[in-house]
Every structure is written in C-alpha cells, then in structure tokens.
UniProtKB/TrEMBL annotation:
It is a peripheral membrane protein. GO terms for biological process: methylation; regulation of signal transduction. It comes from Malus domestica (Apple). This is Leucine carboxyl methyltransferase 1 homolog. The chain crosses the membrane at residues 284-309. Keywords: Cytoplasm, Membrane, Methyltransferase, S-adenosyl-L-methionine, Transferase, Transmembrane, Transmembrane helix. Gene3D superfamilies: Vaccinia Virus protein VP39. Involved in brassinosteroid (BR) signaling. PANTHER family: LEUCINE CARBOXYL METHYLTRANSFERASE (PTHR13600), LEUCINE CARBOXYL METHYLTRANSFERASE 1 (PTHR13600:SF21). Its EC number is 2.1.1.233. It comes from the Eukaryota. S-adenosyl-L-methionine binds at residues 56, 88, 158-159, 185. It catalyses: [phosphatase 2A protein]-C-terminal L-leucine + S-adenosyl-L-methionine = [phosphatase 2A protein]-C-terminal L-leucine methyl ester + S-adenosyl-L-homocysteine.
Length: 402
C-alpha cells in the first residue's frame, strides 16, 4: 500500500461501517437483522452519520431492487438468472437480508482481504442465524477465509491483483454473460487511482450486461473535504483515489473512459431529495426529530401549545359574550395553532436536515451500465416505477434507545 495508507487501517474501516449501520438499525432508520452479529462494541453515531448511512442504504436497495426486478423477454420472465459481485464487501449483510426477503439472486459473491473474509467465514460458521441462510452442504474454511455454497461465495483476494480476479470469479462459478450487479461501497477510493481504473476496466471487459454501483467521497478541496481527508489520514487510511475523481463528472468519466457504456453520478443531497422515496424520507424525519430533540423538549413544546390553545382562549372568552364571536375566535385560534405548530415543526426539520447537508454533498452514488442484452433501458435514478426499497416495519420503540 501507499505510505499514507496501511492495510490494517483500511480493513478497520469495515468495523466502522458495521458499527455505523448498527447505530442506524437501532434507531429504527433501517432494518437489518444480521449486522449486530458483526459488531463487537456497538456505538451510538451522531444523527449526521446516521443520515448518511440511511440515505446510502435506501439508494443501494432501490437500485438493487430495480436490477433484481428487471425481466428479459417474455420467455425469460421469472427465469433470468442474475448475480451480484460485491467488491470489498467487508461485513455487509445484504445477501442475508435478500434471502429473508425472498429476493436473493442465483449467485452472490463477496470479495475482500483474507483477514476480513476469515473473520466473516468464522462468524458464518459459528452463528446459526447466518449458517441457516446458506446451503447445508456449504464448505467453510476459516483459515483460508472462504465460504463456498450453492448461491453464496465469500473469497479472499486483494482487488488490485487483477489476474487473480479472473481466477476467483471462475472459482466462484460466475457466468460473465449473466446480468450482474457490482457493488463497491467505500472501497475504490482507498486504492491508488491506477488500481481503481484497472478494476473498473476489468469489470467492464468481463461483464457485458451489468450495473456497477459505486458509493464514495467527492469534493476534497473545500473546507469540509479537507477536514474529511485529514481525519482519515490521521487514522492511516488515506483516500488515495479522491484527487483523481474529485467531482461527479470525474466519477462518470472514470467509468466511460474504462469502457462502460454510460454512467451517472449524483451527490447524496440530490439522491436523498430526488431519488429516495418520500415515504422513506418522512419516516427518516420522524425518527430524526425524536433523536435530535429529546422527549422532554417535545413535552415542553406540547405543553406550551396546549396552554396556548386552551387557556389563552378561555381567558379571552370572558371578554366576549357574543356566541358568534366566540366561534370566530375559535376558528382563528385553531388556525393560528396549526400555523404555529407547522412553523415550529418545519423549523425543527430544517434544523435537523441542514446539519447534515455538508456531509451529504461530500458523498455520491455513481452507477455505470453495460447493456449487451438490452435489459436496462429504464434503469436508474429517473425510474420511478419502484416505490419501495424494501418492506420493513417502522420501529419507534427501538428508536428510543441506542
Ligand atoms: C469502508 S469498508 C466498506 C465495507 C462494505 N463495502 C460496506 O459498505 O459496508 C472497505 C472495505 O474494503 C476492503 N478493501 C479495501 N481495499 C481492498 C483491496 N485492495 N482488496 C480487497 N478488499 C479491500 C476493506 O478490507 C474493507 O472491508
């Protein structure tokens, strides 16, 4: 690795990611019944971090669902086999979640450093919750960091070793002609630009009908970006690739220059406001308000509003003896009450959301498309046919405690 980056520190970013996902799950922002199995020391993340993970999760799941729901021509309906390849998968649990949702693809392959896959293989072997989700005949090796089952494979590889990638996808039983969804969440940005470009080129050459989903940082040059980079550098995991692709345009160019047919990149502010479902955003805002404003604040607020509504009217009522006037005042008061309520509410929401806009502007989702089979004409941010990232229950009780 580059002297500004060391392997252990980059691998440790995986523990951070799992802890952050668990923080989000415990607050009720998203559902993941498995991530707690991968976190030794749960932590409570700030609302800003929670929002980042929530938006990232919602965007990935929505695009992934579009891919999984894509159908070929009439005779392939329901029979089109699909595969997912997760680069630098860490302790991600998407495979297990898709299993629960009955949406798991024909093949799900995860690659990471051996140190990471060994830990994941050990957890899969020892934890029945995880073990039950892969076939009974699976072969699991903690030493070599491998899980080989019918529909799920976990393999150890340094992604920069391109010739090995070919061997590993053969070992995993991937069919390069099948529709393939490639995930790289906060992975390529830790690699030197030549390695990232080689990986992007290799995926494009290998998979002719594929989506590449990328989530990572942008804008290293403003004050927030510089601080973000310093924080990571001080931990020994520099964002080696960020100056090579610092903007949305540069992320799109990366894909097109390395052979992908087309690419689109949006920052997370836009993804959140224009792509994440309104219903998901509302759910987010409710939980976020509860998280940002302790219950006591809300109770005080309600008491003030209640006082305003009841007492102020009764006091003033004594001044009136005309019944009609009382009705008019009641109408005015209730209007005023609702106006005030919605003003206070919208101020709270603005306060909550404005806190995290800097953060959201420094992350992006980019996707690239190769469409040899002509399946992905509708795919992407502008496809509004998919309403829900996934079915799940709003868990307000769990949002009360981390
Ligand atoms: C920030 S974590 C993200 C994990 C996962 N993608 C997620 O979003 O939860 C980065 C992961 O990339 C892996 N990684 C980084 N460089 C790698 C390389 N050269 N080869 C294999 N894995 C790598 C790390 O080990 C780590 O698990």
């Amino acid at each position: 690795m580059d002297s500004r980056s060391n392997k252990e520190a980059v691998q440790a970013t995986n523990d951070d990611a799992s802890a952050s996902k668990l923080s989000c799950v415990k607050k009720g922002y998203m559902k993941d019944d498995y991530v707690h199995l991968f976190v030794r020391r749960p932590v409570r993340r700030s609302p800003i971090i929670n929002r980042g993970y929530f938006a990232r999760w919602a965007a990935l799941r929505k695009l992934l669902n579009q891919f999984l729901d894509t159908e070929g021509n009439a005779c392939e309906k329901g029979h089109l086999k699909k595969q997912i390849l997760s680069l630098g998968a860490g302790f991600d649990t998407t495979y297990f979640q898709l299993q629960d949702e009955g949406k798991a693809p024909h093949l799900y392959v995860e690659l990471d450093f051996k140190e990471v896959t060994s830990k994941k293989a050990t957890l899969i072997e020892t934890c029945s919750h995880l073990r039950d989700k892969i076939s009974a005949t699976a072969s699991i090796s903690r030493e070599s960091g491998e899980v080989l089952s019918d529909h799920y494979k976990l393999l150890p590889v340094d992604l920069r070793d391109i010739p090995k990638l070919d061997d590993f996808i053969t070992l995993a039983g991937m069919d390069p002609s099948l529709p393939t969804f490639i995930i790289a969440e906060c992975v390529l940005i830790y690699l030197d630009p030549d390695s990232s470009r080689s990986i992007v080129r290799w995926t494009s050459k290998t998979f002719s009908t594929a989506i590449f989903f990328l989530y990572e940082q942008i804008h290293p040059d403003d004050a927030f970006g510089q601080q973000m980079i310093r924080n990571l550098e001080s931990r020994g995991c520099s964002l080696l690739g960020i100056h090579d692709t610092p903007t949305l345009q540069a992320k799109e160019n990366l894909f097109v220059e390395q052979g992908w047919q087309r690419a689109v990149a949006w920052d997370m502010l836009k993804v959140y406001s224009d792509f994440v479902e309104a219903q998901e955003r509302r759910r987010y805002v409710y939980i976020c308000i509860l998280e940002n404003f302790p219950l006591i604040d809300l109770v005080v607020l309600l008491v003030i509003l209640w006082y305003h509504l009841c007492f102020s009217r009764i006091e003033r009522l004594e001044l009136f003896d005309e019944f009609e006037e009382w009705h008019m005042m009641q109408a005015r008061d209730s209007e005023g009450f609702f106006v005030k309520c919605s003003l206070i509410f919208s101020l709270m929401i603005r306060l909550v959301l404005s806190q995290s806009s800097d953060f959201q502007e420094h992350y992006c989702v980019a996707y690239a498309i190769n469409d040899a089979l002509g399946l992905f004409g509708d795919f992407g941010f502008l496809n509004h046919r998919h309403q829900q990232p996934q079915p799940h229950v709003m868990n307000l009780s769990s949002s009360a405690s981390p």
